[in-house]
Amino acid sequence: MTNPRCTVCGHVNIVGAAVCEMCDTRFGERADDAREGASASEGYAGGFDAAPEGSNSFGEEARPGALPADIPSPQFKGVGDVLSPTLEVYRKNFLLVGLLVLVTTLPPALLQYVAARAFVADPERGPFGLIAGGGASLLSWALSVLGNTVLAGALAYAVVEIQRTRTARAGECLRWGMGKLVNVFAASLVTSLLVYAPGLLMGLLVAILGPLALILILLLVLPWVVLMLTVSLAVPVAAIENRGPIDALRRSAELTSGFKGLLFLTYFLWRIVISVVALVVGWSFASGGGVDALAAVLGYTLVAGMLESSMLVLTVYIFLGILTERRQGFAPTSAYAPPSAGR
User: Fold this and answer.
1) Same domain, yes or no: 173 and 268
2) Whether residue 111 sits in one domain with residue 32
3) Strand, helix or coil at 26?
4) 45, 325 in Cβ contact below 8 A?
5) I need a surface site. Which of 39, 114, 128, 157 has the fewest CB within 10 A?
6) 90 and 22 in one domain?
7) How does residue 301 score in pLDDT terms, banded at 50, 70 and 90?
8) Could you tell me if 110 and 3 lie in one domain?
9) Domain range spanning residue 140?
């Protein structure tokens, strides 16, 4: 017996399944009938995995360079709906993710290590030595930004391919990440400016006003958190749907509407988990001695990169999960209604 593949969403189910695990379509039911039934019973039948030919998940014209529309996606009704597939990616594709992290994070870490060791070996190198060291640090930072941008796009492609075909190749993931470098970098930059600028403002208020600033900060915290959640999907949107930064922000705001409470809980819990793991790993490296050794530095960089990459993978699954909920009519709004025939 073979694993039945759903004709509606494309999900590959377990052997012997009578109903699709993703969209509840009964096997043997014609795809057209299933889609018509879903439209009648659920309202909007869009969604990334149900987009008609020539258009995307919300009835807009398909974008050249976007990933294919047939993406079987998880639900997003609870934290476990997206945490489970995220952990599954690392359990079944650990080497793939590890290779992507290795390629994108170790070069800048290695350059920074070499520059730091050179300065320690000869701290009185004069102005030319300081300029060289500063140049190496700046280059390391630029490579780090470039690597993180490519990694974000590569992981988005990897998750989608794993959902569609159960496998992904590191070379193809990296090529996709490089191809979406401009859009992903622009979306990351604008998102970072929107997120960190209020944080810097709050820090400045504390420095100027002291304790009096606490009241203002308390008033700003909630809007700040809402802003972070609003733009949280901009990077996967830029990578997967091939959107520019402003369009990606708009799309992220549309998608996260109605999901901010669940988004906050999901990100908060997962950030606690990876922070605790990072502290334990950092303590292990420090207590083991040889913190300045090259192997220790590169090893810790790789582990930290793997932990941070899990946030990127989780965000992609949240993006796909929200698309699934929209397709199923969860929290419908006029912004997601397909254009009528009369328009």
Assistant:
1) yes
2) no
3) strand
4) no
5) 128
6) no
7) confident
8) no
9) 46-324
Are 188 and 196 in contact by the 8 Å Cβ rule? The answer is no
Do 102 and 163 belong together in one domain? yes
For residue 9, name the pLDDT band (cuts at 50, 70, 90).
low
Residue 27 CA to residue 50 CA, distance in Å, equals: 17
Residue type, 5: R
Of 22, 56, 69, the residue nearest 321 (C-alpha): 22
**Cα 170-156-92 angle, rounded to 5 deg:** 60
In-domain check, residue 342: no
What is the count of structural domains for the chain? Answer: 2
Tens of pLDDT along 30-79? 444 444 433 333 333 333 333 444 444 444 455 677 887 567 888 999 99
Give 8's contacts (C-beta < 8 A, 6+ positions apart): 20, 23, 25, 31, 34, 35, 38, 50
Q: Is residue 199 part of a domain?
A: yes
Mind listing the pLDDT tens digit for each residue in 191-239?
Answer: 988 888 877 777 777 777 777 777 777 777 888 899 999 999 999 999 9
Phi-psi region of 86 (alpha: psi -120 to 50; beta: other; left: phi over 0): alpha
Residue written as token pair 């140049």: 135
Whole-number Å distance between alpha carbons of 159 and 65: 17
127 shares a domain with 89: yes
Q: Distance of CA 85 to CAs 13, 58, 102, Å?
A: 15, 24, 22
Cβ(338)–Cβ(58) under 8 Å? yes
Under 8 Å between Cβ of 202 and 225 = no
CA 22/CA 9 separation, integer angstroms: 8
Asked if 21 and 158 sit in the same domain, the reply is no
Global confidence as pTM: 0.74
Residue 107 lies in a domain: yes
Q: Is the predicted pLDDT of residue 168 greater than 60, yes or no?
A: yes
In a domain, 330, yes or no: no
Q: Which residue is associated with the tokens 């799309």? A: 251
User: How far apart, in whole angstroms, are the C-alpha atoms of residue 268 and residue 277?
Assistant: 14
Q: Are 159 and 13 found together in one domain?
A: no
